[in-house]
Amino acid sequence: xxxxxxxxxxxxxxxxxxxxxDAIKSxxxxxTDFFVIGDERVLRKLPVYNRIKKRFNLIDAASxxxxxxxxxxxxxxxxxxxxxxxxxxxKTLKEEKAKRLVTAPVSKEAIQEIKPGFSGxxxxxxxxxxxxxxxxxxxxxxxxxxxxxxxxxxxxxSDSIKKIEVSKTLNxxxxxxxxxxxxxxxxxxxxSINPHAGINTHLEKEERIMxxxxxxxxxxxxxxxxxxxxFIEQNLKKYDCIVCFYHDQAMIPFKILSIKxxxxxxxxLPIIRTSPAHGVxxxxxxxxxxxxxxxxxxxxxxxxxxxx
Length: 308
Description:
Blueprint: E1 3-8, H1 16-26, E2 32-38, H2 40-43, H3 49-52, E3 56-60, H4 76-96, E4 100-103, H5 108-112, H6 121-128, E5 135-139, E6 144-147, H7 157-160, H8 163-179, E7 188-191, H9 205-214, E8 221-225, H10 233-236, E9 241-244, H11 247-258, E10 263-267, E11 272-276, H12 282-286, H13 294-305
Parallel strand pairs: 1-2, 1-4, 2-3, 4-11, 6-9, 7-8, 7-9
Antiparallel strand pairs: 5-6, 5-10, 10-11
């Protein structure tokens, strides 16, 4: 029986429409029912649209003023459209009794023009599903990384590290690796905030909190390790997932190693939600260049593969 995958095309002035269609073209031999949420007036401008339009079910949002947008240009029109795609997708998930959602990149700034405070798909979906314990996991064939904090200023990271929150994160990651990825005894590495992991006995406050949190985690957790060595190749082979404590600590090495095959996976939802591990690529679209779709392909493949 074909698996149902709901796809939002993201910001219509960004790379989302193009990489969505290119990904579906690449995945022609998969047994999948694709439901694509977007604007036909945007999609039909892409040459590939007419060649593959019979491979997916298009749900046309018919967004107002969508003909006025320009590739690569941030606008409230696109912000409204991309947020509406997400709302339609959530409705479609329910109507189709589907469990797999793939979201193309959106511009947070564009959505914030019509919805102040919007911080991203992860938080929006967690709020919609009333998920109290959720995390952002970056996935590629080379590594899996979880961000214990996400889009907050660096100065707030230290104060956000609480024993109960760290233990909840580690328990969620451990459970997800077993259930979703079918890893029987996952090995999880914890990364320190301070240089050299506090140099063993001379631990700083943050590392002491981490060690206290481990007492409330049944799984075997390794670390905390220094951030400057955990991502070398020989260490990546030892662990199934690495938990970091601020955005760039995780995302810089992840994007260096996996920019064209990386996937953003939200843990803690009652559905599987994935997304390409990159942004809207306004610069690429404004220049009239073709965006790469390999990360979107990987996001769809992972959504199909994972167990819920």
